[in-house]
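TEACHING EXERCISE
Course module: macromolecular assemblies
Task: Read the component lines below, then compare them to the predicted structure of the full complex.
Student: A.B.
Group: 4
Components provided:
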Amino acid sequence: MSGDPYQTYLAELIDARLLIPSGVRGVYGRGGAFEEIIERFDAYVTRAGADRQPERIRFPPLLTRANYSRTDHMETFPNLMGSVHSFTGDDRAHLGLMNRKAAGEDWSEGLPATEVMLTPAACYPLYPTATGTLPAEGRTVDLQSYVFRHEPSDDPARMQIFRMHEYVRLGTPEQALEHRNEWLRRADEMLKAVGLDVKTVVANDPFFGRGGRVMAATQREQELKFELVVPIVSAEKPTAVASSNYHMEHFGHIFEIRTADGAFAHTACVGFGLERIALALFRTHGFNSLRWPSDVRNTLGI
Amino acid sequence: MTAQKVREIVSQHGRLSVPVAQLPDEGDLYGAGLTSLATVGLMLALEEEFDVEFPDNMLSRKTFGSIASLASAVEELSGRRASV
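Instructor-supplied answer key:
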């Protein structure tokens, strides 16, 4: 069978019941065997960062609309946002809603926005809670959450909703940069240890529009974002499975997070895309994890 | 004069942390507080004012780095480069 290699790999994953299609591109149920690999890798990330004694915090995959509006996500990624709307009308309005549904019309029009947005990255809900002055040693936080990005695709690695396990550092520029650099090293080591053919590359975020190209060029020139890429479907266009980013004082400034000496805090994060890593592992070692190389199974505790 | 007009647009859209009047044409706009976000507004305003469109290879930090480099880019794009 020829055709799109992404669709082909997706069909194989669905046949193997690793992913369960929902009818919407990029939204899948996870089969047990898939989920087990997610859990094992998630725990591996936790073990790899334990020596840094991170605070562990879990947010639901939501960001308040007020805090969303304080970030520049709308300016940079408007096409990826997930805005939650609901119904607040009376009986008469309810009837109108049901009638539009029954008539096959667009019933969503006019539904007012709620107080929440779907979270675009696991670390977004953290920064608004960190307003104030950091301890001298800064903070290191372990986060994991589903995140949402509206980008329907046939590439199984480009899901609309997926999990990201992050370590975020808030502190001085030196502390943030050390975190970014140390995690680039660790992530490379971790991914190699599970048999993935990983490379670290300078990267940019997919900023929206033509103006976004300037932002992307700036981000690359300043080497603020690095991705760890692995071939999943394509060797020529490998997929980012983790990234490590230095935000400088971006979030410190927006959310008034300061270091002990009163300066705006600098932040950095490393994020592991758990679904993408599972997809890379299945692609590299096969769909049956019991047949994976023994060192890989030992590393992951399979 | 292009640089003068660019200067006006930078002052309206650049959201710099220092008054544009204090900057020489060659002055570093990023050093003067130009953010990537403000760059977008600046680009759109320049395109509108001069009726040009920046091609991808000009959408870089270098182009937006100074009033002089912006003026030269705009002149190149509008084909009005002085032919001395």
